[in-house]
Design brief:
CATH topology of the largest domain: Arc Repressor Mutant, subunit A
Structural class: mainly alpha
CATH architecture of the largest domain: Orthogonal Bundle
Strand content: under 5%
Distance between the termini: 18 Å
Helix content: 55-70%
Largest sheet: none
Oligomer: single chain
CATH superfamily of the largest domain: Winged helix-like DNA-binding domain superfamily/Winged helix DNA-binding domain
Length: 212
């Protein structure tokens, strides 16, 4: 999950473009490249936002806003960076804006703006063409509702690392880039978070265990 897509060609078909190559094509005006990016990542982004925003309508709107920003900011993408890191940073910023608007909770400390807002007409056209289909509850077999509530009680920075690592399956290096902090800091946040969760659940010997 959330890895750069690149596969060998089969039966004479050309290899799939990487995420970074697709963003380059999108920046050059290829709308088909955007459709491919959307298909690859919209469920993952929906799930990530859904873990932190309660209202389904807001989750759908925020997911659409994330991809609107990808669409309009593709020309600003640094091709030396990993696309998924850029994408999740956009998602975190959208969640931050939502919390600031609604006062739902304290915001993330990720304040780098990505792209600019545009008119409602363009947004309406975008949403019409790229409606979000909520993902199935496949993770319910792995994580109980109680554990999700406990994760929500973690300090914000620890919670962010847990969500990105456990649910989105990003590497610690990717998380460090998204959160704009050293790798050692990310590892410390994960270790503290896991120990807290296992202590709250009455578990023993949680040190160093990242699978929850």
């Amino acid at each position: 999950m959330s890895k750069t897509h690149q596969q060998s060609g089969k039966a004479g078909k050309p290899p799939a473009l990487t995420d970074e190559e697709l963003v380059g094509q999108l920046a050059a005006g290829d709308k088909g490249a955007f459709n491919e990016i959307f298909d690859r990542y919209h469920r993952q982004i929906y799930n990530f936002i859904n873990k932190q925003v309660n209202e389904r309508e807001s989750v759908e709107d925020l997911t659409q806003e994330v991809f609107m920003r990808v669409y309009k900011s593709s020309g600003n993408f640094d091709v030396s960076k990993k696309f998924t890191s850029w994408l999740y940073k956009i998602a975190l910023n959208e969640i931050k804006r939502h919390w600031k608007r609604t006062g739902a909770r304290q915001t993330f400390s990720l304040n780098t703006p990505v792209g600019r807002d545009s008119g409602d007409a363009e947004r309406g056209e975008f949403i019409e063409d790229h409606r979000i289909v909520p993902a199935a509850e496949t993770e319910s077999d792995l994580f109980s509702r109680n554990l999700r509530q406990l994760i929500d009680q973690l300090p914000e920075k620890q919670r962010t690392v847990v969500l990105l690592k456990v649910y989105q399956e990003l590497t610690f290096e990717e998380i460090a880039e998204i959160c704009e902090c050293p790798l050692s800091t990310v590892l410390s946040r994960m270790r503290y978070a896991v120990n807290k969760l296992r202590r709250w659940m009455g578990a023993e010997d949680g040190e160093g265990y990242y699978g929850l």
